[in-house]
Amino acid sequence: NIIQDKENQRFILSLEEGGAYVKYVWEDNKMYLTHAQVPPSLRGKGIGQELVEKTFDEIEKQEIQAKAICSFVRRVRNSNGKYQKYID
What we know:
Shape: globular
Distance between the termini: 24 Å
Structural class: alpha+beta
Radius of gyration: 12 Å
Number of strands: 5
Number of helices: 2
Order of helices and strands: EEEEHEH
């Protein structure tokens, strides 16, 4: 499951090897997704894709307008048209 840590402005996917997260900032009533981080030992295993998709699902559920700044987040968004409504 993904949790939103509003205090630290992150969506966190808890894993045994540590947390993976998407960092965001708020500006003009829009959430800007600025960085995605996955523990080095888990890279290349699809965890980043899962993290970003679950983040998008949570954003969609909350009907938040968001902008993908991070290049990895943009790549995941572009690979699935499902997220175009809320993530530009």
